[in-house]
Hints:
Strand content: 15-25%
Distance between the termini: 61 Å
Shape: elongated
Number of strands: 48
Radius of gyration: 41 Å
Amino acid sequence: MRDNHMDDAMLTQLMDEYALSDGERLMLEFEKSGVVIPEELDAGCQDLIGQTLKPAAKKPILLLPIRWLRCATAAAAVLVIVLCGTATAEAFGVDVWKIVAKWTKEAFHFVVQEIPDVSELRFDDEWAQETEVTEATLYHEPMVVSTEETAEPTEIPEETVGEITGGKCGDNVIWYFDGKDTLTISGTGAMYDYEEGQSCPWNQSYVKKIKKIVVEEGITRIGSRAFTQTWNVVGVTLPKTVTSIGIDAFTHNTSSGEVHITDLKAWCMIRFESERSNPLRGMDDTLYLNGEAIYDLVIPDGVTCINPYSFYLAPMTSVTIPASVKSIGQYAFAESYHIKSVKIEGRVETIEKNAFSGCSSLAEITLPDGLISIGKWAFYRAGLTSIRIPETVTEIGTCAFYRCYELQEVVLPAGITSIEPETFYECKALTKINLPEGITRIGYKAFSGCISLAELSIPRSVCRIEYEAFRKCRSLKYIAVPEGVTSIEQGVFSSCSDLTSIQLPYGITQIGEDAFAWCGSLSGIALPASVNTIGARAFYQCASLIKLDIPDGVSRIEASLVAFCRKLVAITIPASVTYIDGWADDGCDSLKHILYKGTRAQMWEIDIRSNSFVSRLWHYRATGNEVTITADGQVHCSVCDQSTECTEHTWDNGVLTTEPTAEQDGTMTFTCTVCGDTMQQTIPWEEPPTEPEEGTTDETTGDSVAPEETVPPTELPTELPTEPVTEPPTEPESGGLTEEKTEPIMEPTENIEN
């Protein structure tokens, strides 16, 4: 019989065979060996025999921690049993350990085939260290000799062996701290779960000293919050027998440093109950498989599901997923910012929420045919530059590509029916995306902040565009809204600063608040006759807007409707209007003509809160066509026969008409976007500085002079054109016009749902 790892089952067998069945036979075997038993041991043995003969007696079994006896074989365990009974380790003092070492080798050679040299007792762990032990540790539960009745287990108090402390942390699980830096969990089955705020036994005195956590084979579950507050841990070792790790088991481990495993397939199948269940907690933690760091991860064949949080924060650079995998769990690779490429060889059907969120270096992934759904936040802040979504995909979750700053091109499948909220929020590099026919809804903020998206065709099937869907799409120049859309919701096109033209279909009844606010290039817009409601600030700071016709049926002109539209010359108001807000026309310095379709008497019945509105030139019984823009850039009113010259030009960025050379200056031509007037500006030629020859020296100091870089011709002059250019006011920072800052909700735990 040879044993290199004594577990509870083996100990029980030994106790049943020797201690409980026939204590006297054990003593006879000692005598036959020819060894004289010291008086100290004999007293303990006689006491054991006496208790064994009492059928109803409860005998506490005093066992030494079995991990220390791993290399001492089963013989040492037999000797430990001899020491059991009412006698305690204090009766023998530290000499007990010397006797164990000597007698294991000399007296029990008949019990085992081969006995290691234990003349000096050592720990068998990597920190092997001789120690003097003055006490034994209560380890095993009390046992009952009688076979008729089993007593209820009693609570076993912690005992101390010098600086070594241990105790129970599961029904069949013990813990001990080596007094230096290592906490070891051994036994079989599950550890206890600990409630929030409940202190784990090792946290009381040793939490700051613990640097290594070793969980031995046989442990199947690490309890919830088991290793919270172990701030200084730099190494964790887990066996392949662990199948689940409870909630927040490693909550406050800022970095576990090295996480060692022996079976990658078993690791993939661990059920991590939260993101803080995984010991890979720090940005630079490393997963080791049998002592070798994993950087190019190849998931073993046969794994069908990569469980949630399996490689959360893991530092690998590439991932290969075999054909056997059907699903990638939530947060499976989240925040693994070193990953550059993912290769999926099979037919993964689902990519769950946050699976690759935070993978900022992930530039390349090929999604397989057969993929059905992409979960919420799946690629949040990933480093993707382009992605093709397979035709089999029917669902793309909310915020799936949220803030993928490098994403330039997306190919969507024909099967999707909705662009979910914030799907492409702030994809600032996105220039090309197809919206297939069949899409009926564009969710709120779906393309908000896509500042490089210059062209977009909205399918005719779309019947709803939700609020701020295209907010801050600054490069969009033209939009045609489909006929099925009945409402332009709040802020849908706000801050689309390059938008010059938009087509709105008949059937739209509502223009929401801020719908076209800060559209600085929008010079005109035709509102359908079906519109009956226009929200506050709908055209706020549309700096290029010259004329606005409000449709019949609108009853209210709300606050700041055309505020700071500084080029607005004319506005048409229907007789249906009964209320004009006091700040509706604030900052409209050029507003000259109010084309009112009602009579003067009807005008006086309007609840006008704005004195400036009343003081402007009203034309009654107007049709709305009285004010026109003439060919020479003048605004002409056919009612009062007044013409207003374009006195405030808005110059474009200019065109370089003549390149400056050494022989002649160049010219830059600017055009007014209001009246078409042009203006030219001279661009002088500047001689580029000459480069010194190699090896030249400074005449005054004698030091060598490095060659200077060639300085390109200076940029075009930054002087303003002769006519003043008025910059549009910036977006207000408070009140109803505040630009909302939308931050993503990174779902670190199960509670996060958007």
